[in-house]
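Minutes, project check-in
Item: structure for the 492-residue chain
Input as provided by the requester:
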Amino acid sequence: MLIDVTQTTPPVQVTDTPPPPAPSGPAKDAPPLPAPSGPAKDAPPLAGPSGPSVQEAGGSPLPVPSVRAPRVHRAWFVAAVTFVTIIGAAAFASLPGLLIEPLEADFGWSRGTVGFAVSVNLALYGLTAPFAAALMDRFGIRKVVAVALTVIAVGSGLTVVMNAAWQLVLFWGVLVGLGSGSMALAFAATVTNRWFVARRGLVTGILTAAGASGQLVFLPFLAWLVKEHGWRPASITVALAALVVVPFVWLLLRDHPADVGLAPYGAQEFVPKPAPVPGAARRAVTVLVKAARTGPFWLLAGTFAICGASTNGLVKTHFIPASHDHGMPVTAAAGLLAVIGVFDVIGTIASGWFTDRFEARRLLAVYYALRGISLLFLPLLLAPTVHPPMVFFIVFYGLDWVATVPPTIALCREYFGADSAIVFGWVLASHQIGAGLVAFLGGLARDLMGSYDVVWYASGALCAVAALMALIIRRRPSVEPHEATATATATA
């Protein structure tokens, strides 16, 4: 249980006229800084080694119990809870690639049919994200995330009773899609923006890596469960994993540093909690309309759509069945995908560190170019067994899996300021639409051509396009032209 560092006693009433001193009390003109031998009279009511004093009716000071400033800023505890929450919710993302063949065997559904349900899931995941960011501004992070996790659990749990393809689309596509979208990466972006001023890139990388960590934790176990006991126990496991995290969110997460009387990590002064913003849906649409008038928004949305197509839509959904097509056991293919998750953690955290130090546009161009090159080689590496070149691909591709997220969030913050979390939600929507499109088209291509090869090559080419798009995003001037003119005039 985390310990609040809020002041539990009434704060000092500060007035313009100091109270009359007690006969033996400190001098009336004592400086406001604390004296070596005791606490300061005017110490703030929060976060200090010594607390304030309250004046008794007779004028003698009554000491208030001291509250120690936390050695570790509360923001890091909030980031840790967010990390665990995203891990718990990530179980659902591990399952689609494992369900394609079992559902095909049990119900006779084509890969295109299952891929369509996955594409609905991914598209709603993305389209819900910008509204989720606005809902978090309106109702608070805790409430939105707790409800989202519950919806994921309900959708995943109901799949065990389905007997028609439309039910797969409803339960897995709609319910799990809406629940996961209500958290998505907008959750990480909102927590980072509210709780951190310093180390934002690093924290973004860590929280983004949480999704890969969830994949690492759940995928090998779910693959074994599907193989030994069928896909239904795996769906129940996903539902339980989402439910288990709900109490952590409700009890330990806080919406804003002001809730516990702290400034954001790295801030020089206290930041009051903003009032709830009504009209969440209207605000999300208004922000979209405003952002859509700028070129950087479309370039970021386009590059992130290709990011989703080449990761969630292609590799996460189709790598396991594609490997199985070449004779590789499902458990071995799932193990390789989990190893991608291991190196994704390393690559994403490193990307956050790089984003704090290097230009985000160039980082994006490098990431997309390297990813495209790796995908062009993948069709040549698929085989019945795991061999060294395949291991090299897994490591190389894993380091680049979602390394694009920290620089993309940084560019959204640079261009769109206070609306950046909502704008990133819309950029994430494009990511998931691209992912959903390729999840469906990849399965359709496999049904029609009996191979995924053309999909790997097309995704590699798209990554090259994304690298070029990233390079042409203009750097935003640090000072707007009208501000520069006003400054020059004032100086003259």
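Outcome recorded: The beta strands are 53-55, 61-63.
No further action items on this chain.
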